[in-house]
Amino acid sequence: MRLRWPFPVFYPSARAAMLLALAAPLALVVAAAAPAAWIAAPALGGALLVMVLLDALLAPSLADVRVIAPADGEVGEPLHLTVLADFQGDAANAAPWAALALDPRVAPGGRLAGALSRDSGAWSARLEVLPTRRGTAPVEAVWLRWHGPLGLACLQVMRPLEAAIRIRPNLAPARSPALQVFLRDAQFGMVARRIRGEGTDFEALAEYEPGMDRRRIDWKSSARHARLYAKEYETERNNQIVFAFDCGQTMCEPIGGLPRIDRAVTAALTTAWIALGAQDRVALYGFAARPQVLSPFVTAPRDFRRLQDAAAALDYSAEQPNFTLALSTLAARLRRRSLVVVFSEFTDPTSAELMIESMRRLVERHRVIFVVMADAELAEFVAAPVVTAQDAAMAVTATTLQHQRTLVLQRLRRAGIRVVEAPHEQIGNRLLDAYLAVKREGSLG
Fold it and tell me: What is the pLDDT of residues 221-245, one digit of tens each?
């Protein structure tokens, strides 16, 4: 955006204030030595104020300024905003400084500031921010401050801006080179054809080659042909996969600098991209005290943007999740057997009781994967050296909570639910492994 400014306001700089502070003791000395010369003190202060006014008049004027802000960004990924300024007159000693008023989800405290540097006659500042939450973050105003040639006056202008940055879910893992190599070498692709590989539907016999799974050798056919033959299977396709997100208070708490819900969204979208490449159907579901979002099933990679938009609509909630209402609503809308991936968090067995009962009813008709991020803070308390009584109390409490957490996950496993528990930086890979394992088992058809 390009803005033109009227004459700015000005005020004494830090240098002028320092000179005034140094002049005060000098005025006291003059008044003590020659009381008749007391007039010199106010004259000196007046002269300094005149110099401040003269410095403001001689300061370069701002010709125009441009604020370049990206239209879109991803949570947890750096964004760069650029402020460009042009001055009329000699601005060699202007030392301009820019500040932007932003949404707190983009910059801590809602403020971003930095000094402008000169490059090829233009003044510019490249400011970096790290979004910590999804949503639309308005860029509300810009302040520009610069000095006069003597450095005694500061000139400042402020105008509102009409810009906004849409903070979307993070898709960096889906663009990673490792995942692209996986997609290239995977046993299923994105073309509509019969796909041989991991699965349960028998496809054909192929001559056995070193490296193939020996358990697939068809011994009867091998005996008839006097050479080894192995069975090939068709990969399951057109499965329904629903990623269900608990958007309650616990999931909105930060882990590693970002809310758990955003870590979960990144892992889910990465797996969804793989699932669409495997010709499965994917939907997103969000809930807290009541259901929030249920997207239609997406069937092709070209429609992946719809999943990203649905994930961006997941709201942060300070309420406790209602698992009974949420999972019963989801089960009523699923007309066929599906894979339901639930992202949630719990703090104690009591709060997890309703969750376990609701998921037990869900697993009667569907395959369920429960995804939870390992609590690194509890592990730190358990492993920390015990020096004081408070350290001992914290270690005992953390050990108890960790034990209760293990019991809840064991109950989920005994109910037939596949549990994925990993640190937040590994949760995406572990979820992808679990999804591929379910496809190999062929239990969704």
Answer: 778 777 787 776 555 567 899 999 9
Is 173 within 8 Å of 75 (Cβ atoms)? no
102's enclosing H/E stretch is: strand 97-102
Evaluate whether 2-168 and 172-177+236-441 have a shared fold: no
Rg of the chain over Cα atoms, rounded to whole angstroms, equals 32
Beta bridge partners, 420, equal 371
**In whole angstroms, what is the distance from residue 371 CA to residue 251 CA?**
12
Nearest-angstrom CA–CA distance, 113 and 286? 36
**What's the pLDDT tens digit per position in 383-393?**
888 888 888 88
- The backbone torsions φ and ψ at residue 20, rounded to the nearest 5 degrees and listed phi first, read -65, -40
Produce one character per residue of 118-140: b if its CB has 16 or more CB atoms within 10 Å, e if not. eeeeebbbebebebbbbbebbbe
Rounded CA-CA distance 8/39 in Å is 33
Confidence (pLDDT) at 3: 40
The pLDDT value recorded for residue 237 is 62
Query: Which residues of the chain carry a pLDDT beneath 70?
Result: 1-7, 23-24, 26-32, 34-42, 45, 177-204, 209-214, 232-237, 443-445
**Can you tell me which residue has the tokens 């057109």?**
238
- 2-168 adopts what CATH topology? Immunoglobulin-like (2.60.40)
CATH class in words for 172-177+236-441: alpha beta
Write down the domain spans for the chain. 2-168, 172-177+236-441, 204-234
Beta strands in 148-215 (DSSP E): 153-168, 196-197, 201-207
